Amino acid sequence: MSEFATELLRTFPISLLLSGLLAMGLLSRLRPSGRISFFHAKDNKLLLTKVSGKTGAKEQTTLVDVCRDATPETCHLNPFLFNGHLQTAWTVMKHDNVPVYYKRKIFESESPMFTGHYAMDFVVKPYDMPLEEGELTDQARKYTQPEGLPPRTSFFTPEELSALPSDDTKPMLVVLHGLSGGSHEVYLRHVLAPLIEDGLWEACVVNSRGCAQTKISTGVLYNARATWDVREAVKWIRKAFPNRPLFGIGFSLGANILANYLGEEGDNCQLKAAVLCASPWNLDVSSAYLQSTWLGREVYSKTMGTSMKKLFETHVEQVSTNPRIDVEAVRSITYLHEFDRALQCPTWGYPTEGAYYRDASSTDAMLSIRIPFLSVQAEDDPIACRDALPFQEMTQTPYGVMVTTSWGGHLGWFEFGGNRWFVKPVTNFLNKMAREIDTQVPGVVEHPEKLPGQIASHAGLDKDPDMAPKPEFNPVRRKLDMKLPQ
């Protein structure tokens, strides 16, 4: 989002942005409180077991109750930021100092199909940053861009790396950032800060290839269904921290990637629960929505396209070695969908960006998720638009609850005073799942025969025997045949 904000300011002066947004806002009715809505399966609950109390009795609750209890009853946002555009624009202006410190480790992919490296940033206690360039700041720039590492980030020392694995039982959060972002993003740190302040949580951020000031070592960037690195990361974390219950959270495009990963893992998922925040879900619908209005096309899509083109130029020396990429075609793009047409389609073999969006969307994959998850969305989000939200799909799975607010923008939700509302339901949910729910006991679906993919048969005296073929609905079957590493 910080890259998005920077490009937005480069494209449009602050005065023009504020004047246009305020003028548009004056046409809207001042809304002092946002509406909160819940979407979930009505007739098929996921039963969760609570941590035993003093009596040792095992009580049960439902995922819906956990999510409702985690969500504040009201959504009072800043009255001066009274629509989604203003809330989103304020992410450009708002620069809170949320000091989260990281130590970085570089991972080499073990997959022969997705060779290359990526960076994981582990949250650590505050420390004095190195005053001089050296091994801890990758002075040789083997893995890091010439500008250096993001703020409050340095590499592990060999001694720190050897001491990193642990047998402790702290809950650990695996984080995926948004489009062209990284561990430095402020929306991400707003969630991490309250979780780590009491020392009860551990966390790490899986940076997408080429993001967060990392170099790439192949001619391929990440895409919207790039689940291979997070899969390897979770396997490594599971091995290094065998006793830690693992949780996941994704923001914006990272939420789409995380939902795809969770769906692909299905019953074998190593995470105990997850949060999907401001996900675009149906990428084809989201893209069409951006192109349908002047603001969507000339502000949001243009800004994100410029941001991705900047990321491309950062890695152009390496990416240009890919024989499928026409460098000048990428350089000539203006909008995000044009970038995907020029780079993602030829890289992965999609005939059109629409085919890529439909294949990479997580709306169907969500139906294959088999761990509890909470989705938090703003219905006035100008990027992850309301039309792309999986309202109907959420009523078909007992494993998820979607909370929407009528107001909040894209990863905004700014309250009066600067706090962000979405942090409350997100951290409350994670804390409840980690501390109040016995995650060693699998959740029980009340009516497993009603899970997505199960074909209902209504027997009766006036019915013929159900002898018809029973085709299989596979929510994660893709049009692009990519052999996922096991």
Automatic annotation (TrEMBL):
GO BP terms: antibiotic biosynthetic process; medium-chain fatty acid biosynthetic process; medium-chain fatty acid catabolic process
Residue ranges with Basic and acidic residues bias: 460-469
Stretches assigned to the AB hydrolase-1 domain: 171-383
Annotated protein name in UniProt: alcohol O-acetyltransferase
Disordered: region residues: 455-486
Lineage: Eukaryota, Fungi, Dikarya, Ascomycota, Pezizomycotina
Protein's job: Displays enzymatic activity both for medium-chain fatty acid (MCFA) ethyl ester synthesis and hydrolysis (esterase activity). MCFA are toxic for yeast and this enzyme could thus be involved in their detoxification by esterification.
InterPro entries listed in its UniProt record: AB_hydrolase_1, AB_hydrolase_4_sf, AB_hydrolase_fold
Family of the protein in this entry: Belongs to the AB hydrolase superfamily. AB hydrolase 4 family.
Keywords assigned by UniProt, alphabetized: Hydrolase, Transferase
